[in-house]
Specification:
With 392 residues, this protein is an alpha/beta fold. It has a domain of 218 residues: Enolase-like C-terminal domain (TIM Barrel, Alpha-Beta Barrel). The chain is 36% helix and 17% strand. The chain has a seven-stranded parallel sheet with strand order 7-8-9-10-11-12-13. A three-stranded antiparallel sheet has the order 2-3-4, sandwiched between helices. Helix 2 crosses helix 12, helix 5 packs across helix 6 and helix 9 packs across helix 10. Pathway: Quinol/quinone metabolism; menaquinone biosynthesis; Quinol/quinone metabolism; 1,4-dihydroxy-2-naphthoate biosynthesis; 1,4-dihydroxy-2-naphthoate from chorismate: step 4/7. This is o-succinylbenzoate synthase. Its EC number is 4.2.1.113. Converts 2-succinyl-6-hydroxy-2,4-cyclohexadiene-1-carboxylate (SHCHC) to 2-succinylbenzoate (OSB).
Length: 392
């Protein structure tokens, strides 16, 4: 696959088998990028970059995530960087668009800093505003949202993201206080699916959709939030969900509109998200893929920053000089490499478990076919290679 999306329909290649750990360690680079604005309580974003056969890819689960959760991020990285291109491959995914409309992201800054932050997002007419920040009040949120509305005017769109920071009563009260600012939707106002369902019921007569983020990407069953009537739309992120294909399957099964977003990725990770957005059959909302503007430094000379309110769908060329300039400290480099090794072992374990389950299914199917006098085997263990994506 070329680094640029060609004119006309393009495609993503099918996933390849899990690469050896030694191969991954040999092509790994760990960076520590300063942020332009404090976000999620951090001032520096660390990421492990991998140069795969197809191109650069990113493994950057946040430090507090355990290995089981982080391994799914590694599956996404391998899916994006180690996929094989096969001529006539039936698993190729069509990329339906070559540019992705993106929103600006407003951290939980004071209202007097809103204009400064928005200036980094060229042409963006949708703003996601962080609210319910620990240590702040609803009055802080109202002031921030008011400043955003004043800056973008009545035609701009505002969505709020509480990251599960409110209980039901707090969320209902906040919705009433913030509704005059004409909100597009409210993202993850409460932490649990039952809370979201109750809040959605209370806001039934309001034209304020509820979007689920953490209840999708951190759940064993990412569709439960929709099945329980707790969300009007889902937020999907390629890395936390195990890759582009895994996220596409979740969107298809959810059956509700989807918003593609990111996890404060470098431009390499944002490229993965852009490919996800490009592959969706429908893209009704601006995507949260403009967050390169939150970084004070990146790993490429041509970062995926918003231009005219959108970013291109392309792979990113990593600049060796920038990677060297922002290389993580030796102890952090070692920490990330050890984490990579543990997550690789977790993916191997999942692959073995999946292979064993598949073998059992094949044996059962064969026995049933033999019993019916049809000895043909519909499948074999060889049809279930150990994938980087596994069945996470």
């Amino acid at each position: 696959m070329s680094d640029a999306v060609q004119s006309g329909p393009a495609a993503l290649p099918a996933p390849s088998a899990l690469p050896p750990l030694d191969e991954l360690l040999s092509v790994a680079r760990v960076v520590a990028l300063p942020l332009a604005t404090r976000f999620r309580g951090i001032d520096v974003r660390e990421a492990l970059l991998l140069r795969g056969p197809v191109g650069w890819t990113e493994f950057s689960p946040f430090a507090e995530y355990d290995d089981a959760e982080a391994a799914t991020w590694l599956a996404a990285a391998l899916d994006f960087g180690w996929s094989d291109v096969g001529a006539g491959d039936p698993d190729l995914l069509v990329l339906r668009r070559d540019r992705i409309p993106v929103n600006a992201t407003m951290p939980a800054v004071d209202a007097d800093r809103v204009a400064e932050v928005l200036a980094r997002y060229d042409g963006c007419r949708t703003v996601k505003v962080k609210v319910a920040e620990r240590g702040q009040t609803l009055a802080d949120d109202v002031a921030r949202v008011r400043a955003v509305r004043a800056a973008i005017g009545p035609e701009g769109r505002i969505r709020l993201d509480a990251n599960g920071g409110w209980n039901i009563d707090e969320a209902e009260h906040a919705a009433h206080e913030l509704a005059p600012f004409d909100l597009e939707y409210l993202e993850q106002p409460c932490a649990t699916v039952p809370e979201l369902a109750e809040l959605r019921s209370r806001l039934h007569d309001w034209d304020l959709p509820i979007a689920a983020d953490e209840s999708v990407r951190k759940a064993e069953d990412p569709i439960a939030v929709v099945r329980e009537g707790a969300a009007d739309l889902v937020v999907v992120k390629a890395q936390p969900l195990g890759g582009v294909r895994a996220a596409l399957r979740i969107v298809a099964e959810a059956g509700v509109p989807a918003v593609v977003s990111s996890a404060l990725d470098t431009s390499v990770g944002l490229a993965m998200g852009a490919h996800l957005a490009a592959a969706l059959p429908e893209l009704d909302f601006d995507c949260g893929l403009g967050t390169a503007s939150l970084l004070a430094a990146d790993v490429t000379r041509d970062p995926l920053r918003a231009e005219g309110g959108s970013i291109p769908v392309r792979r990113v060329d990593v600049d060796a000089g920038l990677v060297d300039a922002h290389a993580a400290a030796p102890e952090r480099d070692a920490w990330w490499r050890a984490r990579l090794a543990r997550c690789h072992a977790e993916l191997e374990r999942r692959a073995v478990a999946a292979s064993s389950a598949d073998t059992g299914e094949i044996a059962a199917d064969t026995a049933e076919a033999d019993h019916r006098g049809h000895p043909q085997r519909a499948a074999s263990a060889e049809q279930y290679p150990r994938q980087g994506e596994g069945r996470a």
